[in-house]
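Researcher: Here's the sequence for the chain we discussed earlier.
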Amino acid sequence: MAGGGSKLSVFASMAANLGIAIMKFIAAFFTGSSAMLSEGIHSLVDTTNGFLLLWGMKKSKVLPDKQHPFGHGKEIYFWSFIVAIFIFALGGGVALYEGIKHLLQSHHEAVFSRKMMFWNYGVLAGSILFEGISLWIAWKEFRKLHPEGFVDALRKSKDAVSIAVIVENGAAVLGLLIALAGISLTYYFHNPVFDGWASILIGLLLSYVAFFMAKETKHLLIGESADEEEIEKVVAILKQYPQLENFGNIKTMHMGPNDIMLGANINFKDDLTIRQIEPIVKEIKEKIVQTNPDIKHIFLETDSYGQANE
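Model: Thanks. This is the structure I predict for it:
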């Protein structure tokens, strides 16, 4: 799913998450904070997800074979979908469980200790710093590939790795802020209910992130078309040829982030011979590829099929 630049953001995210997870688990052990434990699990899940994304990137580059003649580009979509499941089950599910369990417990005196609060604040400050750096790197890599507006780029992008890293890092920063608020309120009011609710909010946040990623990846996994702008470029090329009586039924599908399959029906005028048609078809294909090199599979059916939509 990813362009070459995505690997840098994945490695940066993995390194940050692994170090942060260790710090969070240490702080959770000494303080008994449910929100901190949930955040530790969150970071550990994100680290594991990084390995899955890298594995998907590697598998997606396997060359076509007899069983997979169009290549393995959709491998990255499959593993990104698995990442979404991991975030929901191990991240959101455990955080919700820990938060509810914390609310049902009577008290956690360790959370109120001034000394223990230094653990929480220190780890959270360091985590926000590292996650912020990781998010900044992922943002820079994403903007290199998608210089247009961020919202439009996120909606149109077929690069599931970049989307996953951006969304995960953004959720991580937001989760840390929720944990910071919950722990601070717990300490200020001497009431562990805030820590429990912070964990629940983190669980809901991760569940939403998982839903968003699963929804976006599902479209790509089952076969999403190229952007309308790319189809319009193909239409513009076909309109350049007066030898065509009509054309239509233009269909595209992403086989990977940078691998598009295109099919179309084109109907030549009856007075043309096969010898005249062949070089025209070849030229049309060459122009399409020049317009968008990601279109790697082109199928033009040259027969009469009734009135075409131009």
